[in-house]
Fold these 2 entries.
Entry 1:
Amino acid sequence: MPSEEKWPQGPLDGKGAPKPRRIPEVAAILAWVLPGLGHYYLGYRPKALILLCSILAAFIIGIVLADFEAISIAEHKYAFFAQMGTGGPTLLTLALTGGEVSEGGRVIDPLHSIGLLYTMVAGLLNFIVACDAYERAVRGRANAA
């Protein structure tokens, strides 16, 4: 009977050896700053690219649908907490738009609501991605011990 070889847990380098273990807190913070960056840091390159493209696509589509008025602390107090899950993109959008929403009797556009929802979902998904990056780094440390 052939010997059962245990497969290494976690990402491998180009030579088939396990990559060095990473700091879980750094992985989580990087994942929050830019979707997928924590997974990239851990060596999960294809997964990082998929996460970056899908979460940023949802966020950008939401911003465009809401006519660049989805990110506002004053106008959307509770939605802003969900949107902050996206981290860097939310802060960048807030800096570029100033968080201002047009004044006056704005008619509630259904696309604005949908855009707001897209940005919130992108933020909440990125919270999950950051937790996943943290967990993968912790699991990698446990397997090294």
Note: Residues 24-100+107-144 form one domain.
Entry 2:
Amino acid sequence: MAHVTHLDHRYAHFSLNWEAAIGAAVSAGVVFVALEMLMAPLFLGMSPWAPVRMIAAIVLGQDVLAPPTTFSVGILPAALIVDLVLSIIYGIIVGLLLHRWIAGAPHPAAVLVAAFGAVFGLSLYLINFYGFTGVFPWFADARNVLSAFAHVVYGLVLALSYRGIAIRSLGKTPLKSV
């Protein structure tokens, strides 16, 4: 029995609040897609479905990027599944990185978690739009401040949602943010 306790202690830093990770990931993923769909026509003069098609092209191939960039019954579910699966993976990563910090007392201020989330989101942008362009070359076409902004917002929503859900599930009250 002591051996199991030792293993539990040794791997305790890999703890994860699954409810917080998945809940935050779904929230952030939905906000991300909605923000991209809103910003495309407002600031870029593009169809709101263009970002959805870019996401769906990850699994459906580049053919879905060809005009017209309108609504398609098959493309929307593919994009949402890709977005949510990736978001859950990112939520797990954020959860693993934040769990011990949030589970400790006192809880980190929201502003610190927000800063972490913003950096995480910007890192995702750099990885996605500069690292993965060899596999998904159409990502290079979306390198712009709006895509970076959407990723920063995604990271903020992901980290702050994880913090809120994790603290609530611990039955504790969060500290007021600075």
Note: Confidence is low (pLDDT under 50) at residues 1-12.
